[in-house]
Amino acid sequence: MSISGDEQDQPKRLEPWMEDGNIVLAAQGNYFRVHLSVLSLHSSIFKDMFISSSPSSGCSTSSYGALDDVQVIDRCPVVQLSDSVEDLQIVLDALYRRSHVFTFDQPMPFSVVAAFLRLGKKYEIRQLFNEAKAKLETSFPCKLPQSDLDIKITGHDPHGFQIINLAHEVGLLSVLPAAIYYFCRSCPLSSILDGYTFEGSLFSLTTPNVRTCAIGREKLLELQSVAFPWLKATASGVRRVRQCSSASCNGLVNLTIARHWHPEPSRDPFMTWEAITAEFTGENVCHTCRATWQVEHQAGRDRAWEAFPGLLGLESWSELERNAIDIAL
């Protein structure tokens, strides 16, 4: 039967509300009137749901929703979904209006990334899931970045807890090491353990991620000895590059250490050669030392990056990459 009652009891209709739609999706007391054929075109899960839950088959239930034979709006059967209304509206807008379309280089809001990944995975909407997956993987790559990470996601909390939680939620573990490196090296341990408030909202990590991020924050500090052994050895006078032609080279190494690690130690074992040697000029360091240190620096970064997932309790990079390919729709 059709819903009736006072205006205040009427369902809250949100866009898209298609006047010629033949099914209504309900989420958290909100309703969208859409087309069975459009949803079925993009999602085999929706297609199977409608087949198994059609009125002619007795309104049977499915794991994703059910047609209720007593609730009809504008002669359209209602399907109750457990998804958030925000996620559902973003996905429907993308399917109907081509909203939230971004080029490869354009940042994508976190709310869109989350909706595309959650509902894209749940309902097997291949295009949306893979678009959001690509944004995460581009922002937090498996390969050691040769420059600062270029984050293609906007609107998340400052310490990236939303991104880390989402990646774990949808099983995209390959982005976790780079995300933890980017966010947790500057995040206070107290925030990792207890959460923090930003603009009136509390952000916290899920229980598994609390441990991973706390470990990651400390392991980043330890990895400096793996990444930069040439700095310590040169500064302490243990070794000197053969054929060094400048008496100031070792002094510049000490200056570099002082600038980057004092008074507080850095937690960035993947600092680029350009960043760590910004004060090295052609006049101050000889060509032989520069060339030798640069090779050793890159080798140290590579060793540290290769070791990082294991220190977090994750699989190797090769396994993480293989799993990321497997979960693509």
Structure notes:
The protein has 15 helices and ten strands. With 329 residues, the protein is α/β, with parallel strands linked by helices. The chain folds into three domains: 7-84, Potassium Channel Kv1.1, Chain A (2-Layer Sandwich); 87-221, no CATH class; 224-311, no CATH class. A six-stranded mixed beta sheet has the order 1-3-2-6-5-4.
Alpha-carbon distance between the two ends: 39 Å
Instruction: Give unreliable regions as ranges.
Output: 1-8, 55-68
Largest sheet: 6 strands, mixed
User: If you compute it from the alpha carbons, what radius of gyration comes out, rounded to the nearest whole angstrom?
Assistant: 26 Å
Portion in strands = 5-15%
> Strand order of the main beta sheet, please?
1-3-2-6-5-4
What count of domains describes the coordinates?
A: 3
Average pLDDT figure: 85
User: What is the SS-derived class?
Assistant: alpha/beta
Global geometry: elongated
| Total of helices | 15
**How many strands?**
10
Helix fraction, binned, reads 40-55%
Write down the oligomeric state: single chain
Secondary-structure element series: EEEHHEEEHEHHEHHHEEHHHHHHH
